[in-house]
TrEMBL record:
Domain (Trichome birefringence-like N-terminal): residue spans on this chain: 83-135
InterPro entries linked: TBL, TBL_C, TBL_N
Organism taxonomic ancestry: Eukaryota, Viridiplantae, Streptophyta, Embryophyta, Tracheophyta
GO molecular function: xylan O-acetyltransferase activity
PANTHER family xrefs: OS06G0235200 PROTEIN, PROTEIN TRICHOME BIREFRINGENCE-LIKE 9-RELATED
GO cellular component: Golgi membrane
Domain Trichome birefringence-like C-terminal: 136-434
Top-rank taxon, per record: Eukaryota
Protein name: Protein ALTERED XYLOGLUCAN 4
TM helices/strands, residue ranges: 15-34
Membrane-protein topology: Single-pass type II membrane protein
Biological source species: Carex littledalei
Subcellular location: Golgi apparatus membrane
Keyword line: Golgi apparatus, Membrane, Signal-anchor, Transferase, Transmembrane, Transmembrane helix
Length: 443
């Protein structure tokens, strides 16, 4: 538990951290965290207007494109995987390379399709995370699909949640064909696919604070998000009952300007010198959003169908890798992982991670990892392994051929927050797979 004084005022170190975050990547974060999401070039014709998964099951008899998967299901190689701390380990070279690429998978967001955008180096594709305590097997799409057969896996959060969801879609699509069954009309914030071979559903829900919010609108001069820390986001929570696996991923939106409410009163704001409200930073409001959401999820689970099993996972914060001048667009030009000791975790990233890990730990009950009525809480604890991968971001390759016509590197917009696909984000899903595969949960 945190000491009360840590929660209630800013110590100089925190203040420094806020300032740093405000000055360096804010403009960049704004730019691509908030940019509307372009519609994909092509998608399945069967688009529905409801997010209710039960209404999307289609027979595939007349679908020529549908590839029937092998009858025989691959069994998980080891049914008794021990509990492992996947966060401790090292990146080791791996000749095998990724399971998919920018041409074999069509759910890669354009800005993360580094290969297609002309990124010339490929070394970043040949690394594998080796945990210190145990093994992390190479992703196996059919084993994963077998675990979520007749189940619904939902990613809920910000653009990093979407990045991880799209990575999982590419990994799974290397084994079976998904059908896009829902997509919101304009900004593509909500989508759903079904793998007909396994009746397995994967959804993405946009919810960058998890709780209720009114998003900023730069066009109308509204620079601040308004976040209601004691109200839930109905868009996803109203569909909670249908979800068997939930992966939350959030954090970066708490760093940008926001006004925070409780009980319909403003309790403070962040990056808000133009208002006469208390600057409350982001650690406390982040902690409240996460813990209240997880507590509500537990409450709804316990009150729901008592035979249902659920995994609720939170992907931990990953820090940006911008380097260079404070007042210029930073970049992330490294082509290899950092070696042990070569990089230090930012205070902010460490605190954001710890907030999530502590919240999950206290919800787990006796601290022994036991399930509460079939509800398993887990962290996809990737803060450290992601820290070591400055080479895994799109950098300038968020746009096609950024250096054509002699454009200079320092004037090109860089993305050093999201991950190339394929890339290190695929490892997040290898860890997720192991968490889902825990004995007695779904298998
Ligand atoms: C897999 O199972 C075998 C025997 O059942 C056991 O000896 C081995 O340690 C297990 N390996 C892992 C990674 O759990
Ligand atoms: C992409 O993957 C497909 C299918 O695995 C393969 O045939 C193709 O050669 C790959 N392309 C590149 C550029 O690696
Ligand atoms: C398909 O999966 C959904 C959950 O996503 C489940 O509610 C439904 O019962 C499944 N259908 C069949 C035929 O098992
Ligand atoms: C700002 O808040 C302080 C303390 O609540 C108050 O004394 C002051 O009058 C306010 N200033 C403005 C401009 O509203």
């Amino acid at each position: 538990m945190k000491a009360p004084h840590q929660q209630n005022h800013l110590n100089p170190r925190k203040l420094f951290t806020y300032t740093l975050y405000v000055l360096i990547p804010l403009a960049l974060l704004h730019y691509y965290l908030l940019k509307p999401y372009p519609a994909p070039a092509r998608f399945s014709p069967q688009i529905h207007t409801s997010l209710d998964p039960s209404s999307h099951i289609h027979p595939h008899d007349d679908d020529d494109d549908f590839v029937q998967p092998p009858e025989k299901e691959l069994k998980l190689q080891n049914q008794t995987l021990p509990r492992c701390d996947y966060s401790a380990g090292t990146w080791i070279h791996d000749e095998r390379g990724p399971l998919y690429n920018g041409t074999s998978c069509n759910t890669i967001k354009e800005n993360q399709n580094c290969m297609a955008h002309g990124r010339p180096d490929t070394g970043y594709l040949y690394w594998r995370w080796r945990p210190t305590e145990c093994s992390l097997p190479r992703f196996d799409p059919l084993s994963f699909l077998q675990l979520i057969r007749n189940r619904h896996l939902a990613f809920i959060g910000d653009s990093l949640a979407r990045n991880q969801a799209e990575s999982l879609m590419c990994l799974l699509a290397s084994g079976s064909h998904p059908e896009l069954v829902y997509q919101d009309s304009t900004e593509n914030r909500y989508r759903r696919w079904i793998f007909g071979s396994h009746n397995a559903t994967v959804s993405i829900y946009w919810s960058p604070f998890l709780v209720k919010r009114i998003e900023k609108n730069e066009k109308e001069g509204i620079r601040h998000n308004r976040v209601f820390l004691d109200s839930f986001d109905e868009r996803w929570i109203s569909e909670f009952e249908s979800m068997d696996v939930i992966v939350f991923s959030l954090g970066h939106w708490f760093l940008i300007p926001g006004i925070y409410y409780e009980n319909e009163q403003i309790i403070g704001c962040h990056v808000c010198s133009e208002f006469n409200h208390t600057e409350i930073g982001f650690f406390d409001v982040f902690r409240k959003a996460v813990t209240r959401t997880l507590e509500e999820v537990r409450r709804r689970h316990v009150e729901g169908d008592d035979r249902r099993k659920r995994l609720v996972a939170v992907t931990t914060f990953t820090q940006a890798h911008f380097e260079g001048e404070w007042d210029k667009a930073g970049s992330c030009a490294k082509k290899e992982p950092y070696k042990e000791g070569e990089v230090k975790m930012e205070y902010t990233a460490g605190e954001m991670r710890r907030t999530v890990v502590d919240a999950l730990e206290s919800l787990r009950g006796n601290g022994d990892g036991s399930r509460v009525n079939g509800l398993q809480f887990e962290a996809v604890d990737v803060t450290r392994l992601a820290l070591l991968r400055p080479d895994g971001h799109p950098g300038p390759y968020m746009y096609p051929n950024p250096f054509e016509n002699g454009k200079a590197g320092d004037r090109v917009q860089n993305d050093c927050v999201h991950w190339c696909m394929p890339g290190p984000v695929d490892t997040f899903n290898e860890i997720l797979w192991q968490l889902i595969a825990q004995p007695g949960l779904f298998s």
